[in-house]
Amino acid sequence: MGFRMPEVILPEFAHLIGDSAEITGSGETFAHVYPGNGEVTREIRLADETDVDRAVAAARAAQASWRAMPGDKRRDLMFRLAAVIEQHAAQMSPLLSVENGSILLAGPHMSADAAQKFRYFGGWADKLEGRTVPTWGGSAHDYVGYEPYGTVGIIVPWNGPLFAATMVMAPALAAGNCVVLKAPETAPWSIMKLVELVRLAGFPPGVVNLVTGGPSVGAAMVEHPGIDKIEFIGSGATARKILASAAQSLKPVGLELGGKSAVLVFADADLQAAAKRGLSGAISANGQGCVNGTRLLVAREIYEPYVAMLKAMAAHIKVGDPFGMDTVMGPVISEAALNRIHGMVTRGISEGGRVICGAERMGGDHAAGAFYPITILADVTPESEIARNEVFGPVLIVTPFDSEEEAVLLANDTDYGLGAYIHTTDLTRAHRVAGQMMAGQVQVNGSGEAMTPCVPFGGMKHSGHGRLGGIEGLREFQQVRNVWINLL
Ligand code: NAD
Hints:
Layout: E1 15-17, E2 20-22, E3 29-33, E4 40-45, H1 49-68, H2 71-87, H3 89-100, H4 107-125, E5 131-133, E6 140-148, E7 151-155, H5 161-174, E8 178-184, H6 189-200, E9 208-213, H7 215-223, E10 229-233, H8 236-249, E11 253-256, E12 261-265, H9 271-283, E13 293-299, H10 303-315, H11 335-350, E14 354-357, E15 375-378, H12 385-388, E16 395-401, H13 404-412, E17 419-423, H14 427-434, E18 441-444, E19 464-465, H15 470-475, E20 478-486
Parallel strand pairs: 7-8, 7-10, 8-9, 10-11, 12-13, 12-17, 13-16, 15-16, 17-18
Antiparallel strand pairs: 1-2, 3-4, 5-6, 6-20, 11-19, 14-15
Helix pairs in contact: 1-7, 2-4, 3-4, 3-6, 4-5, 9-10
Bound molecules: nicotinamide-adenine-dinucleotide.
Nicotinamide-adenine-dinucleotide is lined by residues 155-160, 164, 182, 184, 214-215, 218-219, 222, 233-235, 238, 241-242, 256-259, 290, 390, 392, 418, 459, 464.
């Protein structure tokens, strides 16, 4: 029963250490499960700390020549990788679906996005200019230059591994760093394929190294003295452990964490468009996107019509086989995730949430996989658990507001600060409200278009610090050196 997993050619190797592509690591064996029907796709022998050690040594051996390579040569390699990714998009798409149940239709977009990141940051690689500083009194010649860190460790989550890995790799490589990348064991295939393509594009051995593994492999990377900077994308709970470890080594750590992003719908909004975009917060990445707008704050005068519109639109969303050509939403990552999501929804109802749709596990063909329906709870109070914590599933909550001031207060009344979405046709209001959002990325009349390599992305408050994307993303992987020359 359930949705059949098609034959998919999985990547050959799970680890890349220097020029050694290795099928097995030295760690434990892990059975990867396809969330569409609960079947094991393949057993992987994961890395352990000895493999991390070797990967770091390989990166460090490659470091000096990668840093010294002229920027135009690094640029050309990154452009070549972009082209190779595009050429292999058809092979990448099914891997993205098998690894975490994302819909096949999203695959081409994910490959295109990965290619664009290497193009965008490849374009910076030959423009890593410094600047001169006019000194007070003119007694010295002073200039600022930018240096790579050396070796960057990259740890990413399962919900969008290709997306997350490339948003770090591209700027880190452009800036002249080597990388040790960890593919999450729960969704490893797209990163393994990406690293295969890195080789095909002709990157020198050791510039990009791959270890596949879980928390212990990540912890070994954070502890490793040969890794100069960690970029972590994942949960706040893991970030706390990483920061505790980094407190010993004094290693810099960039953090891209979770969110509870508000969607503000004002009475003057294009209601139809705002409902469609509001619903996307439940659908995008099968409801498991860090920046999904999941906390809908709606002007009271349009509250009921808006909720009714959401319900009607949700009824038309096909949830099912990730490989189906008309499927709009697939499963969540695992049974454990499904149970956690359902628990939060159940408690949200007991705290006063009104069920508009969903809130029950799906049966029939869906029962074998981890399928949870689009769930909308209205009248959720701001203090309830489901209004305050990240659900990380296809669940929207809706709360009314009576004034712009109240909307802003509610939007900012969260520990998180990743995204905020504003729906209004009043441009003055759009700027006024955007300027008050305590969130790293504010979108007006949008729902994800800003997730593009050329603009900075990242969080405020518990959503992390540092930025990926744009010139700010490049700077994350550069250190500043100031040179002061006394004029004799
Ligand atoms: P997680 O924190 O459990 O795991 C993330 C990664 O950290 C995995 O690769 C895991 O193996 C590794 N890890 C676990 N323990 C570790 C340790 N002690 N030391 C080092 N590494 C360790 O998160 P998850 O469940 O995989 O992902 C979901 C979370 O990620 C959500 O909170 C989501 O919002 C967040 N996320 C954020 C962004 C962003 O860009 N802000 C993007 C995607 C996901």
